[in-house]
Amino acid sequence: MRIDVDALIxxxxxxxxxxxxxxxxxxxxxxxxxxxxxxxxxxxVENASYGLTICAERSAISAMVAAGERDPVAxxxxxxxxxxxPPCGACRQVIAEFNPRAxxxxxxxxxxxxxxxxxxxxxxxxxxxxxEAGRRDPS
Length: 139
Known about the structure:
With 139 residues, this protein is an alpha+beta fold. The protein has five helices and five strands.
């Protein structure tokens, strides 16, 4: 499947202004491209109880799952900060749940810079259910 990185960035950029970030003032939007060619969008939504904040990437992955899809091939992460930002550890784990080899596109609308990496580069050893099963088996 050909991945149009610029189109994916454009989709995420379209919803960046919907980000709710009154505490950090770090606005992030994400676009998840699936193997079916559909794109799912998400933005970060902060909360006064910081632990309840949801990242844009997990928001977009949740939209993908709610629509019945399970195969993300690329995730664009767009911010208005000077530098592109990578997904946090929690988002890396959630993306890896569905595709540990997903393409990760990081883009700054302020500088126009884009960084593209494979999730395996950013997160070489995701936790898997087989890891959990091994921990429960005392033998």
